[in-house]
């Protein structure tokens, strides 16, 4: 029995989704997996990317053997069903790790179309119990495992967070991600309607428009910063998980999405050894409460009061818990544990 995967083209090494998938591939490499496709490539050119991935898929399926345990990431776009069909024809076991459902945020397929694709698997891995329940409600028949968090690796052993003994004054909340106008206007609305009084924001991401900010001393942007550099350099005390065009809730498709799945964002923050601020209705909020790695809020306009009422001792407990989780994320603990459970199940059934 071999553990195998097929790498592909990724749209640039700085892409957040690329970082997550490449980390998973690196974890698999450390577990003895074999990339039976071609070496990963990194280009934003759609035509070249299509050709590179197609070549890797063809090579990978040619090298696939009977009895192999093949791990796929979903969505895999154009070739997913084709890979599944050939894998079963060659009598390989198929395990898919689901990043996202196409019928939710992107509305690319219907539930029925997606179920037809995913039902080709022998085992599914999802990020939380809500995603699992969504599949059970649709009457998926294969076993479904939960891996809880997205592991976040470092490119260098020297990537270590700054250790702070006290909260900043004012308290610093970091936000890692793009603020695309029209999709993520919450920061500009916050600046107009409920600007921070006792804390400040530092934004690591693209498309932030400083000229639209009035309270420049409380909201500043540093542009895109690679994850390793955020881990090594941030002086933040908290990490914010928020999306959309409202400060009262995470609205629209992003709200639906976060009720179902867990993004990479909170995992990046915990790798920085800082607690997380989560929307109370997000699926990830359960992990925050259970492991005491942050706070849950209904609205961004609650932050001034909540942060000012937290003691240094209460914060230190959450920070230490976040560090414990960070140590696991750094070692690939969550994927390794879930995969080995899947492998054990398939071997015994």
Q: If you had to describe this structure to a student in words, what would you say it looks like?
A:
This protein is an alpha/beta fold and 349 residues long. The protein folds into two domains: 3-151 and 331-348, Rossmann fold, CATH 3.40.50; 171-330, Glycogen Phosphorylase B (Rossmann fold, 3-Layer(aba) Sandwich). The protein has 13 helices and 14 strands. Strands 3-1-5-6-7-8 form a six-stranded parallel β-sheet, with helices on both faces. Strands 11-10-9-12-13-14 form a six-stranded parallel β-sheet, sandwiched between helices. A two-stranded parallel sheet has the order 2-4. Strand 5 (69-74), helix 3 and strand 6 form a beta-alpha-beta unit. The radius of gyration is 21 Å and the shape is globular. The two termini are 15 Å apart. The model has no long low-confidence stretch (mean pLDDT 94).
Brief account:
This protein is α/β, with parallel strands linked by helices and 349 residues long.
């Amino acid at each position: 029995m071999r553990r195998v995967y097929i790498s592909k083209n990724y749209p640039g090494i700085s892409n957040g989704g690329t970082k997550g998938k490449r980390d998973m591939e690196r974890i698999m490499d450390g577990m003895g997996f074999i990339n039976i496709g071609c070496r990963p490539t990194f280009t934003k050119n759609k035509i070249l990317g299509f050709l590179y991935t197609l070549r890797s898929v063809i090579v990978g399926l040619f090298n696939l053997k009977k009895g192999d345990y093949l791990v796929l990431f979903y969505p895999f776009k154009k070739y997913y069903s084709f890979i599944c069909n050939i894998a079963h024809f060659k009598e390989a076991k198929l395990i898919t790790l689901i990043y996202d459902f196409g019928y939710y945020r992107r509305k690319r397929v219907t539930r029925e179309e997606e179920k037809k694709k995913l039902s080709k698997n022998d085992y599914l891995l999802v990020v939380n119990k809500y995603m699992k329940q969504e599949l059970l409600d649709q009457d998926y028949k294969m076993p479904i495992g939960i891996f809880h968090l997205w592991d976040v690796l470092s490119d260098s052993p020297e990537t270590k967070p700054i250790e702070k003994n006290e909260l900043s004054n004012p308290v610093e909340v970091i936000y890692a991600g793009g603020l695309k106008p029209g999709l993520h206007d919450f920061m500009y609305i916050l600046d107009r309607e409920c600007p921070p009084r006792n804390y400040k924001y530092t934004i690591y991401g693209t498309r932030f428009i400083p000229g639209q900010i009035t309270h420049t001393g409380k909201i500043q942007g540093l542009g895109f910063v690679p994850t390793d550099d955020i881990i090594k350099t941030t002086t933040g005390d908290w990490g914010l998980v928020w999306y959309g065009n409202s400060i009262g809730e995470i609205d629209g498709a992003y709200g639906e999405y976060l009720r179902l799945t867990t993004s990479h964002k909170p995992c990046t923050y915990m790798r920085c050894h800082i607690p997380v601020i989560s929307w109370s209705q997000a699926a990830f909020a359960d992990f925050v409460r259970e492991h005491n790695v942050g706070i849950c809020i209904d609205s961004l306009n609650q932050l001034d009061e909540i942060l000012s009422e937290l003691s240094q001792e209460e914060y230190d407990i959450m920070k230490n818990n976040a560090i414990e989780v960070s140590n696991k994320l750094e070692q690939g603990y969550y994927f390794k544990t879930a995969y080995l459970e899947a492998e054990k199940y398939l071997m015994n059934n």
